[in-house]
Amino acid sequence: MSQQSVTFTPLVPQSEGALCYLLEIDEFTLLLDCGWTYEFNVTDLDPILPHLPQIDAVLITHPDVYHIGALPYLIAQYNFHAPIYSTTSVAQVGQTCLTDTLLSKLHSSTSFSLFSLNDILLAFSPSHNTPLRYSQTFTLTKSSSTLSISPTFAGHTAGGTIWKILKDTEEIIYCVDWNHSRERTINSGYLSSFVKPSLLITDAYNADTQLSSRQSRDVDLTTFLEGILNSGGSVLMPSDSGARVFELLFCLEAHWAYKTTNDASSNWSTNGAPKIYYVSSTYETMLDVISKSIEWMSENLIKLTTEGKGSFTFNYITCVQDINQIPNDEGIVAVVSGETLETGYGKEFMSRWCQNSKNGLCFTRRPLKDTLAYECWRRIDTKQESNEIEITVEKRVPLEGKELEEFEAKRKQIQDQETEEEENQMNEKVAREEKEMAEESMMSGGMFPVVSNVFVNGKMDWFEDEGIVKNGKYVMYPHSVVRSTWNDYGENVDLLEFLNLKETISDVKTEEEIMKEKEKEKLGASEELNEKLQVLSKTFTEQKLDKTKLVVQTQTVELKWRVKYVDLDGRVDAKSMKRVLSSVNPRKLILIH
After folding, report:
1. How many Å is the maximal CA-CA distance in the chain?
2. Which of 184, 392, 483, 556 has its CA 20 to 30 A from that of 116?
């Protein structure tokens, strides 16, 4: 690394949550991830702000709030315009996850205005985001220097990325939140494919954790769930809204299928299996996005997807957008988006279930400190003097009476103002167009007569305002007029011209043409996703927010439910981390996170 000047700077408070780092390589300045926490504390971003004008590119590794959460805010509030690079899956899954988070915030708050849906869509629009394929090399140029970046598989999440950064002969690897093992839905990471890079930047998230086998953890999870369900209780499982949740859903689906069809000791085949519900405002959009991108999938899932066997069709899991769509919340498993339990339906389930010892709470990822989820998690295997905690529950209730009348009157006033503004804009546009047409007419009238060709009596004649132009052969002088030929049935058609076959077209497309078509497909997919998210947001606003008010209640509850933690977070553990790092053998190593 002696030939280059390399500086690495953490930009957010160091914790197990948000990731955001500044990497300076000679004249290039890269932002590695741009994450936030679910608290969305603006002061956490203060260290980033002075560096925004100097940043040449942003490299994103994973599609969750901890890696992309601050992008919409910085773009909206500070006009942050550095190009953003990610895989297509990270971009699409990421904006869907952020939309789900935004809707949860709006549902439980009347004052969240840090960013809007338009800000999310803008952050991942072609003007800001450049999606790359795995192993694709992209070159950045500044002055007379170049720097290349290339994404490869990281595992852990849909589209998860390891970034290879190459400057001259020096290779820098940025690899965080990675997994060396293949899972049910997500392929394994490729960190071990690198040998002796100049610098490796990676995390030490599980550096002191030794995990048991995946099979034993699956058994641990399902045993806990069955114990709760068999006693008549319900289980709450907080998760994210797309980056990891489908791995969990596939695990539950597989176990439920086995218990129902192959386990003779189970009564599920006769009495029916307990219901599993996945509650997320964006589940339909997320399912569509996930099922269309196979580049990050495991081999088994790719096979099912390409064979058209409905790999993302669940037989034992019901996906709903609203908690009110669940007819009975007793004896069920509820997987909810919102892993902190601070917002969304998770907190509502908690207020209902936490004081009943029959019920359970199961975490598949360590919760962050200073969250409601952490307050529950830290009571595992510990003796607390009191299990009482204070929670604030936000609930939307319909407006009635005078409040509804005032709301309708205010809305009508706003609509009238918007209608008036639209009419004024339309009138101004019409007046402007009429003025332009008048000016063009004056200019043309001063030089040439306004003429048009009209088919009359089987021949083409030229007309002007006063009548037929007798000698109109060269009216368009110095340009010649191509005369049309006619028969008894109309104008003669040149078939070759009609079919656009006058020029010989090769059946073999060039690489440039193929790339252009793929770019058009990506742009079309991005526009289609934007439309879906806009419709989703509009529907959510009309059904959940309009004509409602937010009622906030503070409750003191006693935590009686059983709490369980089973690590299904899909990250490398201490033993495997040491083995892989030893194999990679970087010349220099930075451990973070």
Report:
1. 107
2. 392
